[in-house]
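Researcher: We're teaching a course module on how sequence relates to structure. For the next exercise, students receive a sequence and then see the predicted structure as tokens, so they can try to spot secondary structure elements on their own. Here is the exercise chain.
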Amino acid sequence: MGKQLVFILFFFLNLLIHNAYAYNLKQVADKEYMSNSSITSLCQDERGLMWIGTCDGLNIYDGQEIEEFKTRDKEDYLSGNLIDNIVYTGEDIYWIQTYYGLNRLNRKTNTITHYNEFQKLFFMNKDSHGNLFIIQDSNCIYYYHKKEGVFKKINITGIPISDIVNFFIDGNNRMWVVMKGYNRCYDIQQEAASGDITLLPQKTNLIYQTSLIYCFNDEQSLYYIDKEFNFYAFHIPTQKNEFIANLGKEIQERGKISSIVHYHNSYFVGFLMDGILLLEKQKETNHYQIQSLPINSGVFCLKKDRFQDVVWIGTDGQGVYLYSNPLYSIKSMVLSNYTEKIERPVRAIYLDDERTFWVGTKGNGILKIYDYEFDKNISDCRAEVLTTSNSALSSNAVYCFAKSHRNLLWIGDEEGLTYYSYREKRIKSIPIRIGNEDFKYIHDIYETADSELWLASVGLGVVKARIAGTPDNPVIVDAQRYIINDGELGSNYFFTIYAENEANLLFGNKGYGVFRYNETTNGLEPVSTHKYENMTLNNILAISKDSSNNYLFGTSYGLIKYTSETSYQLFNAKNGFLNNTIHAILRNSSDDFWLSTNLGLINFDTKRNVFRSYGFGDGLKVVEFSDGAAFRDSQTGTLFFGGINGVVAIRADGRPEQLYMPPVYFDKLSIFGEQYNLGEFLTRKKETEVLNLQYDQNFFSVSFASVDYLNGNNCTYFYKLKGLSDQWVNNGSESGVSFTNMAPGEYTFLV
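Model: And here is the predicted structure for the students to work with:
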């Protein structure tokens, strides 16, 4: 008895649309993972998979893993190891060009057909209907006849093979043969019944007075350089030429050009022996500024991604790079790389008006970095470390900094309160005593405009005091302490203060939730009396508020979006968050927030309840963050988060990125632990893929994937198997599901 699994695909993706300008250059493939690190060709299929040809074999990259392509048996081999070109013609058919022959790979069956009549160097491209065309000899073009499974020849005059500089089919399905001194353009006509193809000559307005040395293209334009090194762009729909720049100096210095790609208002120019240039159009003058990207090798190929705002760079010896322009420039500063004196976690951050960057640590005192700028390497800045041994700090465990309306900076630490005097340029002590007890363990500070000072202590409650004295020498008077549960030490762990305004202050408590100061009763009262099932939701580490007046409570079990006692939402690892613990919250704009966790950062849009995560895989060097260690610079909008080994700085300086929802596809099948070619088990029923298994093949696993090179770490998969259960199962980021002892029948698998 046979068994069928009917797959109907849905995809749930937690991501946030981003914008970007400060470019990101990420090396995504190198020697460790690929068959070879010299990249000779790039090809992207309809799923988004990037096929990477190298000097020694073929590789496939899905945004998460690189897999070396291996043939099924001795008969299915590639005719050469050096992959000159790859063309995908649809329906799982890939054409792979090597020096020793042409190979047709059927990915469904993993079989290879060899066409050894095409060897050494030749031009190869495809049209919009998946027809493959080849120019190997003068005055003729070959095409693959799908119905007959053979190549057929079309004789055409006026195309000497030695003069061809480019051969392609444009977005209107017209064929172009560009030669040094002239060009030819043809309409591709295909007879539906027979499948035969004829070419009809067409006139073009592409005329160049000086012969060409290079020509490249995309679907809408040609990019060519003549013998005088003038770089032009010819726009096919308008039939107009645009002068870009003269590259004589650059070609003389760097040698031969391998490829050119148009990207927004810029051009990438790759050099075969010496790196890559970016020609960026200047708004004021319309001239192109030329800058070099930091790739210290030859560049063999460039490719614009079909689906996302990415340029792929294939190098000679350094693998593949991805160039993108994310909205946020994110910079990690691992402090031990700059000074041996800082090894402890960062617990406090502040950037003052003098552009001095203050970093408070739990055990190493304060690191002061002078004349800080986001784009400056902090190793180039003057810095000093302040500790109890060389300053009036009362403890080397520093938990908070706070701005003052006076000429000073408040500092809270394990042993109490101090401040930095800008006039005297030194730290001064300012003891606070409540009764006979020193007020210690200060984790947050807030000063009002009318000289009230609020202090939150982890263990001793909350203090309100009045600031007397002079602007440069404050004195604390009239200190009053507010506690809960009769002052029990374990009940009075207050981590954070949030000021909606100076008359409405909230205090986050570890274990008992959020409290508000009631001026009428002169006491603290709980914001909510709701009893959560998980008590760690009462561990409040951070507080903020969005434009719709929803409170955001960062807890040890996720983020609470709180409207009222009866209306709130919880977001945590079950929803795709990196981690449950929310250490700090910073508001970037009205509904755009950043959260720090134990495994990275989360950018959360409270209006749409969507988020994007940033972790180690996104290049962060600091991923485990600290309670309350966060600061927003009002001058530049830069956000800072502190962690156990350093600081992450975030700046928005990019262009809008288009929302991309990648398709989900099934890619692997395992039966009783043995891998099989999935394509051999799949059939199609209308728009549905059907997996056919025998009744005794009832222990199996299926893996699926969605290719997203910008947000690939932010996928959360849910699935259900109709016929077995109607419950959606949160599979997290795992892209595979196993089934055991399945009864014969027909099931529908939804992802």
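Model: If you want an answer key for the exercise: Helices lie at 248-254. The two ends are 26 Å apart (CA to CA).
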